Amino acid sequence: MSHDAHAAARAPSKNCLNCGARASKRFRRVHGDQDDRAHRCPECDCWARLHAGSAAGRDVG
Ligand SMILES: [Zn+2]
């Protein structure tokens, strides 16, 4: 997991900020925050939570 966190820190704008997985531009624009950054992605969260705002950095519980 530390390796993934390191990858996320190196490429914060194109990768999921939580797990470091690659997040598509479309995903980031649709589900990400106002800067098109994905705080969560389908690799590390479920779609119900992503749609609730987890990908935009909101705490959805
Ligand atoms: Zn992720």
If you had to describe this structure to a student in words, what would you say it looks like?
This protein is mostly helical. It has one domain. The chain is built from three helices and no strands. It is globular and about 25 Å long. The protein binds zinc ion (ZN). The site of zinc ion has 8 residues, from loops.
- Rg over CA atoms, rounded to whole Å, is 10 Å
- Per DSSP E runs of 2 or more residues, the count of β-strands stands at 0
Q: What's the total helix number? A: 3
What class do helices, strands and sheet pairing give?
Answer: mainly alpha
Bound molecules: zinc ion
Major β-sheet profile: none
Helical content (DSSP H or I, runs of 4+): 25-40%
**How much is the average pLDDT?**
88
Kindly give the count of domains: 1
Strand content bin: under 5%
Shape: globular
Instruction: Measure the end-to-end span.
Output: 22 Å
List the helices and strands in order: HHH
Q: Uncertain regions: pLDDT < 50 for 5+ in a row?
A: none
Which descriptors apply to this entry?
61 residues; mainly alpha; 36% helix; binds zinc ion
Quick rundown:
This protein has 61 residues and is an all-alpha fold.
List the SSEs and their pairings.
Layout: H1 2-10, H2 25-31, H3 47-52
Zinc ion binds at residues 16, 18-19, 21, 40-41, 43-44.
